[in-house]
Amino acid sequence: MAPALAVVHGVTPLAESLTGFGVGVTIAVPLLIGLGYAGHKAAPIGLLGLCAVPWGSMGPGTLIAAELSGTGFRELGVMSALLSLPVFLGAGVAAALIAAERGDRARAVGLAVASGLVLWVSVTVANLVFGTAPAGAVGAAVTLAVHLLAHRLRHGRRLAVSAAELRALAPYGLLLGGVLAASVTVRVLGLDGTGWRYLASPAPWLVLTALFTLRSSLADVAPTASHAVRTWAHVGPATALFILLGAVMSESGMSGQIAVALAGLGGVFLFFVPVLGGVGGFITGSNSGANAMFAGPQAQAAAALGASVASATAAQNVSASLLTMSSPARIELAVRLCPDPPARRPVFVWTLGMAIPVILALSVLTVVLVG
């Protein structure tokens, strides 16, 4: 049971925060298969690890929502972290129910709640200390470290890591370590309002990480670039088009008209903020795309009602991110990674069955916090 929770709250969020586009699932599902889980369990558990998508790829989707709503990036990151508590708990509990045997489910649910709380506290504190971009990766890394420590205390032995495995992890260490070091340096030196703040952005560190990874042989550059382009082609154009659609909606005045219609619902609208966000995440399979389309109208409607724009935007961000795990593209990805591909419907039912009560919880929280 513990390994499954380590994947859901540690491995997958860490990989997704550093890469994005569902790459965390491509790591989680084979790992779960290797741990002995059959495909009908590995696929939904792997998808449940997409519980920290607001920080996926170091937060471009959250940044889009912040820009469209006029909310500070750090402020939106902190608020999104606070609202993610039911998401982390729901993902863990669902994974426990899938992985545990019937007689061990009560204990498994208890472990899931504890693991979810560790991730929630870690991500929230990381947002406050280091900023939003690296917060998901830091929180997931801390949670994974807690799981590894618990494993050592239970079994009395440490996990052996080979030199080859350390070399494979080095690029991720450079990326995360560079962003963290730059973020702390910029803040300590009071350079937040200057051009030096861009050093704390993931962008330059991604370039340095790519160069570091390819340093061993120039012969690797061409095939790696070709593979990267082919991989990007599966997700990049669709995401870019959704973002373009969001820009068109904003510039054409469509977002404003949607906001007027939503505000016309009165206080009832606040309950449906996470619902609309979730629909956007399900349709696009991307929190960047969903936020590009709906973060602006949701924020404008909240402002028209005199409600908290930051809280409403965070609810949009978290709910849109949550439903990406149930999108057809993510379901197909998880199923195809299994040597014994399970039926798609049960995998979809597990992810959506977890998401619906979480969305309802987010709706209640939104009414309380935003109103």
TrEMBL record:
One GO molecular-function entry: lactate transmembrane transporter activity
Transmembrane stretches, start-end: 20-38, 45-66, 78-99, 106-123, 129-149, 169-189, 231-248, 260-283, 347-370
Instruction: State the source organism's domain of life.
Output: Bacteria
Location comes to: Cell membrane
Q: Which UniProt keywords apply?
A: Cell membrane, Membrane, Transmembrane, Transmembrane helix, Transport
Q: Does the keyword Signal apply?
A: no
Q: Which GO terms describe its cellular component?
A: plasma membrane
Bilayer topology:
Multi-pass membrane protein
Q: What does this protein do?
A: Uptake of L-lactate across the membrane. Can also transport D-lactate and glycolate.
Homology family: Belongs to the lactate permease family.
Provide the protein name.
L-lactate permease
Q: What is the lineage of its organism?
A: Bacteria, Bacillati, Actinomycetota, Actinomycetes, Mycobacteriales
